[in-house]
Design goal:
13-stranded mixed β-sheet; 13 strands; about 35% strand; Pseudouridine synthase; about 260 residues; mainly beta
Length: about 260
């Protein structure tokens, strides 16, 4: 097992009617496609939380560009409550998959404690360039935000926040690898920087990858496990693979499992 620890080099970029509802598995929509309603993308709903299937190609909250974002559509997800839900965590613009929302302040506090304690088990799928030297491993580094003018990036720095990602190879072919990644901390751009530290940047990553390839970034938040209710089994939610990622995964042996 490979253990990458305390790397000091920078990774430089190029320039329903019921209140309980679940939908899992299958194949998702295309990149940036919200469908007719954001409610169509709900994977799980109960009295405290929602988990939605975030499409790649859209930011989750407003930014300086004031372009399209998910938050401005959250009013569609009230489902009878007086206020819309709010983000419990974030995904990058070009990352697809499971995104957790709290439906009210009490829910957000509980979710915040869960994420802060590292008790939310997240699994990501990525297609990366090249292949790691070991079939599985652990990457542990410091991560620090470096700001220059109006732009910023994350760099590996021993003085930065401790960041841990575990990975394993699921398959490899034609110079690319399908990785399963489990982040044990939740730093900004963590998985993307750690894959680059392995020498295997995420395909299509505009900041830490090989530059412009014309491909979308192939990083998907596949599933999340939330031990939210002490008297119940943990919630397990899986996001369907979006079309642009499925096409690339199929070249690496992925086969869609039919759902009921």
């Amino acid at each position: 097992m490979r253990h990458v620890e305390s790397l000091s080099r920078s990774i430089r970029p190029r320039s329903t009617k019921s209140d309980t509802h679940a939908r899992q598995g299958g194949r998702g929509l295309g990149q940036g496609d919200l469908g007719k309603s954001l409610a169509d993308r709900v994977l799980y709903r109960d009295g405290l939380i929602l988990v939605i299937d975030k499409p790649a190609g859209i930011v989750v909250h407003p930014g300086p560009s004031r372009g399209p974002n998910l938050e401005h559509r959250f009013d569609e997800l009230r489902f009878g409550l007086p206020q819309p839900p709010a983000l419990a965590h974030r995904l990058d613009r070009d990352t697809s998959g499971c995104l957790v929302l709290g439906r009210h302040p009490k829910a957000l506090r509980r979710l915040g404690a869960l994420f802060a304690a590292g008790r939310a088990e997240k699994v990501y799928w990525a297609i990366v360039e090249g292949r790691p030297s070991e079939a599985e491993g652990r990457i542990e580094t410091g991560l620090k935000k470096l700001t220059r003018g109006t732009s910023w990036r994350m760099v590996i720095d021993p003085a930065g926040q401790n960041s841990v990602t575990e990975y394993r190879v699921r398959s490899a072919a034609s110079g690319r690898t399908w990785l399963e990644l489990r982040p044990r901390t939740g730093r900004t751009h963590q998985i993307r920087v750690h894959c680059a530290a392995l020498g295997c940047p995420v395909v299509g990553d505009p900041s830490y990858g090989k530059g412009a390839t014309g491909e979308p970034m192939l990083l998907h938040a596949r599933s999340i496990v939330l031990p939210l209710y002490p008297a119940r089994a943990p919630l397990e939610i899986t996001a369907p693979v979006p079309l642009h990622t499925a096409a690339a995964l199929e070249k690496l042996g992925y086969k869609e499992v039919p759902t009921a």
